[in-house]
User: Fold these one by one.
Assistant:
Number 1:
Amino acid sequence: MSTPCIKCGNPNPEHTMRFAVVNVNSTSTTTYQGRKQITTTTTNESMAGVDKCCVCESCIRKKRIGHSIGTAIATFLAVYFFYIIFAAFFTNKKYFNSHVPGIFKVGALLSAVVAIIVFIVLMQTETPLIGAMILKKKRGKDGKGKVFAPIEPSIYTGKGSTQPNITAFMTKTGLKTQVANGIFFKFIASGTGSQLVDQMLFEQQRTTPNDITHDNTVQ
């Protein structure tokens, strides 16, 4: 018997996806050296286990469109707001007041262009990454503060290459520490990630291994 779609319950979902789950916690501290302000961000990542879900193509498509539209709208508003603030602060007050309609139109046009670009880019998001969003939301409180990193090698393999790339993996998952290296080589570069996840879920019944832990401090 097939596992139903985690989102809508479709009994025959097209996609089965597996993930390495990582706890992520970032803290920032600010110090001063004379008048110079230095902000230090410390990121802690630790392996939280693995997870697996089935999702139908319809739910993937709806999530991809919804995420793309929502992010594009947020981008439009953010760019428009900062453009108007920038124009208000860095142009002559008399000029600004006499050109308000034009400034607003230019701001709206610029914001629309950026938002459209963001929408187009996000609509290219690979299915496993969309699945990670759906799974994280379905896990509710258990998904808070976690990254669900797909272990599908193809989404980290560039054009003209036959091997997944660690840089692409870190960029697409947002992982920043040596934990990413451990996951990449254990689950992805090895080519046996799917079997390993299934084995871990079966044998450990989703325990929380902590064999991969690393702190990364950047300034």
Number 2:
Amino acid sequence: MEVKKIFNSSKNPYFFSKEMIITKKSLNENQLKFTYQKQLISDLDHKHKEWSKSIESKF
């Protein structure tokens, strides 16, 4: 079974591929989750660097 691409995106809120079909809403939600997780990792990395500086200054 082959999925056909539909070029009129205003009538069709889906992205198509041979592997899966997802809605724009789902894609946007996943993008927001990814962005949030990336920010958390960045914050953790920053906190770790600050912590290691404070440890180095004590010795």
Number 3:
Amino acid sequence: MTHPASPRALAPFFASTFFWNLALGMAQVLIPLYAYHLGFSGVAIGSLLSAPVVAQLGFNLVGGVWTDRVGGKRLALVSAAMLAVGGLVYAAAASYAVLVLAQLCIVVARSIYWPATWSIGSLLPGDRSAQLGRLNSITSAGQIVGAAAAGLAIVHLGYRAGFTAVALIGGAVAGGLMAAFAAPAHRAPATALPILATYRQLARRPSIWFGLATGYMAGLPFTLSFSFYPILLVEQGFTSDEAGWLIALRALGAVGAGVTAARFVRKVTARGIPVGAGVATALTIVLIAVFTHAAPISACLFLVGLASGVLTLYFQLLASEVSTLETRGATLAIAGMGWGLSHLTTPMIMGALTDALGIFAAFRLFGAGTLLLALGLGPLHGWAFRGGRPR
């Protein structure tokens, strides 16, 4: 009989997260390049990617509460099904309205997937930081393979075949593996508060707001990867398959963060880790648009993945430490809303800047604004941890 703490027992969960993120990594490259291929403007592409995120913010909060009520495994299965539907709709889409419908399916899948799997990861046996770091590394490894596969799919098979592969891998393969996983025993809250009451209670805590801010910074490179990084790289003269390989380096940096950061991201009260990682994230966003040679661009994409990976692990640990088992999913969801806000604001801002100034100037201005936000994490940390403890 397989022990629940053994690597063999945990293998279906980690394999499922790998394949789900492989499918998502493909979609990150396919979606903006497909919209660009169809001739949409920067604002239209930005709107396509950000407008459905309004729904994501709501589904994210609902998903967090329902993770606490029904367990992360069930919601992860729903997410796999929605990712499959989104891939199939994209494969048949040609008009802007159908593209928006497909993107809405992808957004719903993302919004409920992260609180569900992060909650499962925080409950796995063993060291919490190490298990979350392992989960983040496997997540990013899947995105590496997916980004590279998307570029190859565009060149050799076309967009429709690429989106069909997203549906099969993210739905059938990832969903089947998650169904085979024996998840940690779920304990529903004895008294379930209404959704608004749960989040009203959490919103009174300054540490939750700091977690949301670090989540926003962590999500920026991820958002740019499925929106304007592919377009920037094509404008710099790279082919679509080369762009896929280069974008995979961001996820490779996040793999490195998942493997190494678990060793030193242990005290959520330490200010230097989130502020330093935020500043590094902002600087690399600027530098990617400054360089034109593949070598420094590759280094910047790797470093931005590393820095944002540290921020991701930080806010996951922060949410885990300030929550109870009954509110773990909801706390991770509200901290993870930073990612949702990044997905909402970044494509629209970048789309408007690109149309007005060109994509290179847009990246430089956006990176400068990100640097100001990163520096603002310092005083925000002081407010959230006054007295040396999370408030």
Number 4:
Amino acid sequence: MIELIYNWQTLIGSFLGGVFALAAALIVASKVNRREEISSAMLVAGEITAVRVSVDALKALAVKDKIIAEEYPYWSSEKLAKLHPRLSTLFESSVTRLMPIDVILAAHLRLFCKIYAQVESLLDRLYEDYDHISKGVNPTRRREDILADSELVTNHMKLVLEHVDCAEFLISELILSRFWYLNRARRSCWKTKKEKECAQILIRDNS
């Protein structure tokens, strides 16, 4: 009988030791995962905010310089072509790290990446045109093509800023907030007005 009790004690001790070891490993893994989420969120938020700030600064400068609406696309694209925020090499991997957290956040970040890549491609092409013009040399493309690309940049940047606004909000609510866990749990039951607006933007852009 004593031997049986001893064997059971050993078995229970081994079982509880395994449970505690597993719990400790899960806690450590959770903390590491949380730190990775926060660092990725801070990098992504910082870079998309830089894009928004650059556009806001241009709008403020346009008001100061009294740039009329008809001239704004050409004027702003020239400024952006020379100096616009470039996404870092870590941006794409950080976005990938955040995408499993929330499908709406993932969609806004993916659309931001897609549209901003198109903007950068247009700006690189416009940079050559504006560089020729600044040197007093005729650009290789027609003025109509330059103006069309300038309009595209302006229109694309409006979409970019919408996705930036929603991504900034969702990153703050779902990752950087002190109540991030509660916010994630709540979204399965009901969404705030801002969250619904961000979801509607995706429906509109995909329609």
